[in-house]
Amino acid sequence: MSDAVIPEKSARAVPQPERAKSPISAVAIVTISVLIVLYLMSFADKQMFSLLVDPIGANLALSDVQLGVLNGIAFSSMYITGVLIAGWCVDRFEIRTVLFLAVAFWSFFAAFSGLANDFGTLFIARGGVGLGEAFLPPAAYALLAATFPRDRLAFANGVYHAGANIGAVLTLIFGGMLIGALTRLGSISLPIIGEIEGWQGAFLCTGLPGIALAFLAFFLPRTRKHRSAEQQAAAEAKAKAAKEVSFTAFLAKNPGLVTAHVLAVALLAVLAYSLITWSPAFLGRTFGWSHERIGWTLAAGSAAGGLGNIFWGYICDRYYRKGYNDAAYRVFTFATLIGVPFIIAAFLLKSEQWFIVLYSVAWFTASSFGPLVTAVQLFAPSALHGRLVAIQTCFVGLFAIGGAPLIVAVLADLYGGEAYIGEGIATTATVVGGTGVLLLVLATRRLRNAVAIENAAHDASDGQSAPETD
Fold it and tell me: Is residue 60 pLDDT above 60, yes or no?
């Protein structure tokens, strides 16, 4: 990689020669289809807790800060730990087997949340969900990078991230209807388990099917050929030695780019998770809407987010093929600057008539940053993708999944209490959105140079190598 030559004009904001559009294989289509289903399942489990914040708080006598801990720190503490383990497992074991075990594990704990009757038990259950779901990002991004051509990666990542939006839409619509129906039933009597509340029944209904759906992981392609124990050990030793040197050298050569990228993604994730975790409570407290109406309203926003992920991914790929190696940072700087004012307006105007429009535009723009991960897949060698994605995911877990629910709750308390959740969301979006944009702008030139180097190395190796499948 160090011997690659950077084209002279790559250091400036001048596009390189236009690239031809590459075809997408059948293996890639099957891979992304399965990953979307798994991703929407994981997102549905996270979104369900947000829908149930008020019923859980009322039944277990928990404060907003305690609920923020359950929705954030309880999940993210194990998520951060899990993603480091996941990176190691993805490098050494068959990815589809790893994913099968992870999906079954988090689905079990999602259902176990329905048996919790105090803060401690629910904390453990949320931690189990976080530990299992941590295995999905490293595995998914490794599979996408292995099966899709470089000039179609942003679109692939956008479609994949739309799976989260699909999961949110389904959860908000059907979850809202389910919660409403279970709430009207009151306590539910089940064999062996006994009496449970409506919110507990909702967790059981959404968690248990995931255990069966975990078998979809076996439709993914195999990522390694069968080798003898000696061959496997020798290959792993050789790969490990090469990776350690290149990883250290890459970080030493690109500290500003890696730092800016990881922090920018984490901050934009804080923006998105502040909407995900507290929008249901905001609508219920501000407008007094039913669970069904809240579900339909927020589903419209999530659907807009899915379209945004696909649209911005398509735009990124289009400009990358036109020779703009910094397309990802350019596109998401633009999208975030448009979206943040809509978030502020949605939560400060407190208009029942305009909320759904403002909220949907906010999701289409500022909250549809999934394809931004394409930058890592383009600026770093494939051997480093797993660890770089793991680092990125750790910061997302720490800042966004762990921090966003608590940050908004604390800001609302500072403003005056539960009635000020909207002000907490608007403030969070302004600060993290603005800082994220600044980081992307500062790192744009570094991204151009790093992508130019990797493109040259990629072209020198006769293009993208096919994934190793059986």
Answer: yes
Are the C-beta atoms of residues 186 and 195 closer than 8 Å to each other? no
- Nearest-CA neighbor of 400 among 69, 45, 72? 72
Cα–Cα dist 255/224, whole Å: 32
| Burial of 341 per CB tally in 10 Å (0-12, 13-18, 19+) | middle
Element (H, E) at 190: strand 188-190
For residue 267, what are its two tokens?
């901050």
Around 298, how many Cα atoms within 13 Å sit in the side-chain half-sphere? 33
Cα dihedral 34, 164, 308, 10 sign = negative
**Does residue 270 contact residue 334 with C-beta atoms inside 8 Å?**
no
CB half-sphere exposure, 108, CA atoms < 13 A = 10
Give the dihedral sign, CA 249/251/255/257: positive
Domains and CATH numbers, the chain: 22-221+231-460 (1.20.1250.20)
Cβ pair 268, 331 in contact under 8 A? no
Q: What is the pTM of this model?
A: 0.74
Report CA dihedral (330, 336, 338, 340) to the nearest 10 degrees. -160
Residues 210-239 have pLDDT tens digits of: 888 899 999 888 765 444 455 455 545 545
Compute φ and ψ for 14, nearest 5 degrees. Answer: -120, 130
Tokens of 353: 């008539």
Question: CA separation (Å) from 46 to 71, 92, 158, 412?
Answer: 8, 28, 20, 22
CA 14 to chain CA mean position, Å: 31
Q: How far is CA 231 from the centre of its chain?
A: 36
pLDDT given at position 221: 85
Mean pLDDT of the region 253-260: 92
